[in-house]
Amino acid sequence: MDFDLFVIGGGSAGVRCARIAAGYGARVGVAESRFWGGTCVNIGCVPKKFLVMAAEYGAQAEDSRGFGWDTQKGHHNWSTLLAAKDVEITRLNGIYKRLLDQAGATIFESHASFIDSHTLDVRGQRITAEKIVIATGGHPTSLPIPGADLAIISDDVFYLPEMPKRIAIIGSGYIAVEFAGVFAGLGAQTHLIYRQPLPLRGFDADIRENLAEALDQNGIHLHPGTTPQAITASGTAKHITLSDGTVLEVDTVFFATGRAPNVASLNLAAAGVQTAPNGAILINGALETTTPNIYAIGDVTDRLNLTPVATAEGHALADTLFGNNPRKISLANVPSAVFSIPPIATVGLTEEQAAARGSAKIFLTRFTPMRHALSGRARKTTMKLIVDTATDKIIGAHMLGEDAPEIMQGIGIAITAGATKADFDRTIGIHPTAAEEFVTLRTQTRSYP
To answer: Which of 13, 99, 232, 423 is packed most tightly, with the most Cβ within 10 A?
Structure first.
């Protein structure tokens, strides 16, 4: 064999797996046909957060007046923001490639596809490997409606030549609510169109309800319970017709309607690798596909599509295969964040999940953050703990409000370690902070059953 391990995909999962395996002395090859670092670094969570931060500065300029600053919001320069973003992304992109170089992996800047279970076609070259890892991630999807080709997807947002003055965003998941905050914060007339009654399906109901209120307060036009029917163009304007008969005129229509695994060009059938109906590669608990020497990690498996999960899977697989340290990662109690404005962070079960599972106690608080007592901004923070009645363990924590992701990382450690409500109660809070509310929640809001 040419390699002990060949990794298809140079994103977070693939780079970590290849780098760690090479560090153990394995002969490793890696193929990446687009950009090193994958979606997250180049057209995902990293550049997206830069855009969120840019949008927040406008609100902070307004809020500062309540603290005595004579601040004028001024004009935002979209081109300046994208240029600064590109410089940093280029730097990060290079770091990922250097990590592989330094580890001794062989790099192929090329597409790879299967010839058989041990053989790959890498830009016309036949390459063999004892073990192969598929880490090709996912891609954004759109809806099959008339005029869909007139819309953009999330990959396109980071390269828009100018900031749209009017935008319609279709969807209400992570990407949709995050970019709604970005464009509204940068001054665009922003419409959010979604078929559910509330945004962020699958999240805790209190968080969803309060997010909808926050989006409305941010000036975003919400269109719940509606779906797009068609998009037409009139000059540079786009007209989008909704299921309730509304017709919106905007500059840009943005599909944020989900993602699908990148498997179409891999020729998986030649290697006997099976997929689910949505294209997700089927794996077992050891990250093995239906072909024993082939593995799949990260978003291409469509389990829990988060960069840190993909990275952890890559590391665990390398340890298992080449580090004499067989191990698995748990997908339970994985903290996550939505960088909406304000942001959301969560770990563990939602109230609905806890109620379906058994007896649980709910502790909930909602308050005006200290900052906005002076800024005057109509913004509330929501914090919630879910406690297993039988064990007193915290089985869920949820927050909507400023600094939620920074706060929830520590809460995630506590929940992973099995902390109880009594542990939270005997922890002394840091005052004055929003975070201290998590250790001062004494009054039970409701319980199940």
So the answer is: 13
Tally helices (H) and strands (E) across the chain.
Answer: 12, 22
CATH assignment, 148-257: 3.50.50.60
431 is catalytic: yes
| Identical fold, 3-140+260-322 and 148-257 | yes
pTM: 0.96
Contact 57, 31 (CB under 8 A): no
368 near 217, Cβ under 8 Å? no
Domain boundaries, the chain: 3-140+260-322, 148-257, 342-448
Q: What CATH class is the domain 3-140+260-322?
A: alpha beta
Q: Which of 118, 139, 372, 431 is catalytic?
A: 431
Q: What is the DSSP string of 302-340?
A: -SS--HHHHHHHHHHHHHHHHSS-------TT--EEE--
Token output for 380: 């509330």
pLDDT digit string (tens) for 194-229?
999 999 999 999 999 999 999 999 999 999 999 999
Q: What's the CATH number for 342-448?
A: 3.30.390.30
